[in-house]
Amino acid sequence: MRKFALVVALFVTGVALICPRTASAYDFGDYKSATLVSKAWAALAAKDLDGVLAYTNKCIELYAEKAQAMQVELKDYAVYTVGDDASKDKVFSYWALNDVATAYYIQGQAYQQADKKDEAKKAYTTVIEKYTFGQCWDTQGWFWKPAEAAKDKVKIMDSGVAVDFGNYSSSYLVGQAWKALTENDLDRVLIFTDKTIEMYATKAKEMQASLKEYAWESKDKIQSYWALNDVGTALYIKGEAYRKAGKAAESKEAFQKLVSEFSFAQCWDPQGWFWKPAEVAQQALAAAEASTN
């Protein structure tokens, strides 16, 4: 009898060693959708696919029906105006839709990390087709759209080009554009600069319109015009990449757009100062004009 018990114990131990953690091994907290999504983000950061699936599947199981009902109510994204708490609350009122859409997006990223492309594409496609108008709050102060991000992921997967937009912040995108510029990789420069412009040009134009001169009061004040600064810098990088590639007409177009639409943009140099992309672009335009005369 004791021998039988020992065999059973060894079998159970062996199963525990070779099998991944089950959903029951994870703490779902208060089971709220926001809690589950927060835990899923943490699991994604830890590259814990089982954890991501445990938390996201629980969120989907509990809230997908409510999320689909909210999706049907909408014909477009709920609009958030920066600084308007009422519009922010309106977006948050679609909490189930927002969190289920985000859950599927996180699943897609986790599957990509695990090199499970088919599963990743299926998760992204679900966001795009069923939870289109979900939005996710970024702690830096804006909502981003999981379905739009999922479309980018699918497009990139289909293209075979290895591109990661990270958290889609303008600072991350511009940082990647700078890196691509130093590597003389025009295609990647255009991917990151165009994404920056696509996502943040509207906000950048609002900031540009609010200024009559360069912001100067303090470093924090200048950096508060983050969208203007990053879109202006993206256009500068784009123009410079085209110039280095010998594409004069495309370079001129990017530089002129910077000078005419985002002239008060500034870019922080890690050596300790801000420089002005539009002024450098003007110099580049003048030099190009002189070389053709």
Account of the 3D structure:
The chain folds into 2 domains: 16-159, no CATH class; 170-292, no CATH class. 69% of the residues lie in helices and 4% in strands. The chain has 13 helices and 4 strands. The chain has helices spanning 2-18, 33-45, 49-73, 85-92, 95-113, 117-130, 146-159, 170-182, 186-209, 219-223, 226-244, 248-261, 277-292; strands spanning 136-138, 142-144, 267-269, 273-275. A hairpin with a 3-residue loop joins strand 3 (267-269) and strand 4 (273-275). The longest helix is centred in the N-terminal third of the chain and has 25 residues, at 49-73. It is globular and about 70 Å long. It starts with a helix and ends with a helix.
Note the topology.
Blueprint: H1 2-18, H2 33-45, H3 49-73, H4 85-92, H5 95-113, H6 117-130, E1 136-138, E2 142-144, H7 146-159, H8 170-182, H9 186-209, H10 219-223, H11 226-244, H12 248-261, E3 267-269, E4 273-275, H13 277-292
Antiparallel strand pairs: 1-2, 3-4
Helix pairs in contact: 2-3, 2-5, 3-5, 5-6, 5-7, 6-7, 8-9, 8-11, 9-11, 11-12, 11-13, 12-13
